[in-house]
Write a structure and sequence with these properties.
89 residues
Length: 89
């Protein structure tokens, strides 16, 4: 289901943009490759990661975060449902 392509990364970024979280790519020495500020609803991913690393970091963040899907487009809702089904398995 997960494709490590720039197009899939763009879909994840679009889905997060439609949520109430802000996604930023910054340099830093994050131990897990990302930083999550839940109170401020900001996701920060290491900007030096390759596409695969960025996708893995975003998927890891999405496992631990509850997104508000009320403002999602149909494409984003479908992607979110697919990702939550993959998590359940």
């Amino acid at each position: 289901m997960v494709k490590y392509t720039p197009q899939f990364l763009a879909k994840l970024e679009d889905m997060i943009a439609e949520s109430d979280y802000i996604l930023r790519y910054e340099k830093g020495n994050f131990k897990a490759g990302y930083c999550l500020l839940k109170d401020q609803k900001i996701m920060i991913v290491n900007k030096f990661f390759a596409t695969e690393g960025k996708i893995n970091a975003l998927l890891e963040i999405l496992k631990g975060v509850e997104l508000d899907t009320t403002h999602f487009s149909e494409k984003s809702k479908k992607l979110h449902e697919e990702l939550t089904l993959v998590e359940a398995k």
